[in-house]
Amino acid sequence: MKPSMIKSLQSVIRRASSSSNSWRQLFIRPYSLESSPNCKFAVLGAAAGIGQTRALAMKLNPNYATGYSHLSRLMCTGAAPIWSSSSKEGLKMLVNAGPRAQKLVGIWVFGCSMWVFSMVVLGGVTRLTRSGLSMTDWKFTGSLPPLSEDQWLIEFGKYKQSPEYKRVNKGMSLEDFKFIYWMEYAHRMWGRGLGLVFAIPFSYFLRKRYITLRLGLRLSAIFALGAGQGLIGWWMVKSGLEEPVSEYVQPKVSPYRLAAHLTSAFVIYCGLLWTGLSVVMPEPPAVTKAWIHGAAKVQRLALPLSLLVGITAVSGAFVAGNDAGRAFNTFPKMGDTWIPDDIFSMEPFIRNFFENTSTVQLDHRILATASLLSITGMWWASKKWDLHPAVRSIISSTMGMAALQVTLGISTLLTYVPVSLGSAHQAGALTLLTLVILLNHTVRRPSSSMLKSLRSVATA
């Protein structure tokens, strides 16, 4: 870029910032550009989330838009600045009281979402170590663990009355019982700890009036779902404490209840993650109309793709509930055939999709493959679109994670579901959900104020 061009661009920016309220928050920060070492500026921040100068540069130098022949790509962020909810038309902020409050609330919500993530992983480990039925009663407020040998013997005596001990763990030692008891106890207490981590800061932020009514209602709904999650968990465990219908069937929790428990956890996590993103990034990154149009194309694919990934995750819950991962431990075939003969052997027909081991595993294989192919297709199609670098990076990360998740699933199947790989596969499902949520949030439509400012920049 020529020095005269730099001076012209800086002059336009100064005039815009001094004469128009829409550029009131414009500022310049140092930045080195690869193709022009002497050019060290990048323009960031603008009133409605437009913090870039690409539109201005395009007016000054048409070559910038067509091929970047005189300047390498200007690296700028598209994150929206923080404003008060009353000062910007069309932009509804979730947090009052300025940047500090926004940062604090954002950190808290993200922290809660990560706590839920760890809860899901810990729950997977608890299930894989067959520890979930070790505590045969449940108290809403929780209780202290056994602290003496006599108390341990009392708890062990309760467990000996359960069908799992009689049919699976008969002869288990007290030390082995302590291990599975501590696993289940940790899972329950970790959930109650999350309640405190959520409720105490929530009360503080409400008292300080940091949280808007809209955000308060959303978080209250998530908290209610989290409180209900404990009841769902006990409802699930209770099904495993009942005598099986046949003496040849091992006691296990209902696959329907396990799927409800896991799906509820996924919903809580997704709700917290989306809310946290909305708090810290009230506007999507957008610089030009071309980037907005490209994001709209991605959004049309990302929404159904997210649904497919979610359904695949829920189908995985039924695989876990039916212990289907320990059957047909071959790939790509299921045993000696591509499709087992008994996939529709149950009556009524619909039961096969939720209780038939062969059908449940086949469904999960098909859905996982469809998810990987769909994400790869979106990645391939997006290569032709003009997208914000952040969007392109998220798409690539999503494709990579989908490939890793399928690889983890196959490895888990071939090795008869070891605890390490099974837990990693469950964590991978949540990580993939994280990326598709982030993608959907990043490509959502900007507010009317951002679009209005973009038009004003384009015509400046």
What does this structure look like?
- It catalyses: Fe(II)-heme o + 2 A + H2O = Fe(II)-heme a + 2 AH2.
- This is Cytochrome c oxidase assembly protein COX15.
- The chain is mostly helical and 460 residues long.
- The protein folds into three domains: 1-93, no CATH class; 94-275, no CATH class; 285-444, no CATH class.
- The chain has helices at residues 3-19, 54-60, 62-66, 98-128, 149-160, 163-167, 174-207, 213-240, 255-280, 289-321, 352-355, 357-382, 389-414, 419-442, 448-458, and strands spanning 27-29, 42-44.
- The longest helix has 34 residues, at 174-207.
How many separate structural domains? 3
Helix content: 55-70%
Number of strands: 2
Walk across the major sheet and give the strand order.
1-2
Could you give the topology of this structure?
Elements lengths: L2 H17 L7 E3 L12 E3 L9 H7 L1 H5 L31 H31 L20 H12 L2 H5 L6 H34 L5 H28 L14 H26 L8 H33 L30 H4 L1 H26 L6 H26 L4 H24 L5 H11 L2
Antiparallel strand pairs: 1-2
Helix pairs in contact: 4-7, 4-9, 4-14, 7-8, 8-9, 9-10, 9-14, 10-12, 10-14, 12-13, 13-14
